[in-house]
Amino acid sequence: MRVIQEHLAPKNTGWATEMKVGQVLRLTARTIIDFVAFDGLDYGEAFDQAPTKEANRSIYLKRGHQMLSRRGTPLMRVVTDEFDGIGTHDMQFGMCCRSRHKRAQEEGRLGEYLHGKDMELPDHGCTENLTWALEPWGIPYENIPSPVNFFQNMEIDQKTGCMKRTQIRPKKPVKIELQAERDLLVGFSACPDMASKTRGLEVGATVFEV
Ligand SMILES: [Zn+2]
Hints:
The chain has 4 helices and 13 strands. By secondary structure, the protein is of the alpha+beta class. The protein has one domain. The longest helix is centred in the middle third of the chain and has 9 residues. The protein is globular, with a radius of gyration of 16 Å. Bound molecules: zinc ion. The site of zinc ion has 8 residues, from loops.
């Protein structure tokens, strides 16, 4: 294994980087990670939840599954998933943000996102983190797709369609590894979610060649 890049994203920050085909990105965290990928030569070929679910025949992203672009181009493959057996990764929801946290507070649902009403709201969230991280590549908020939300375990009722966030998180930092199926631009946000009362936790990122 040859390490190409390493980065520790502090709580409630984002990071983006380019990767070459065959390289692996390892993310290590206890908090939710909102993750997106783009074809490195055509940022219009962005990750898309729907073709990904259709191709994998699953609403959850699991080891061996591919992340696909809107036109069905394979972008990445999950090669390691230490969250398997603890919970599942979400592909229904989008990104949290300052206005979503405020709305959750008004709806009395802040406990689903953060540590209840006693906690001071973060002044930004994953939307802002990913927007800032992808800015150097000229990708505006409007062109950032709904992400894969790693370590965001959902309860989905088959009959009613009701979706509920659970409080299941990794108890210690666990790894997810994604191999690039082509040259890519990837980005993620360390969500300021309820994994910690300090409004989030850091995410370790390593790009390496196998
Ligand atoms: Zn978030």
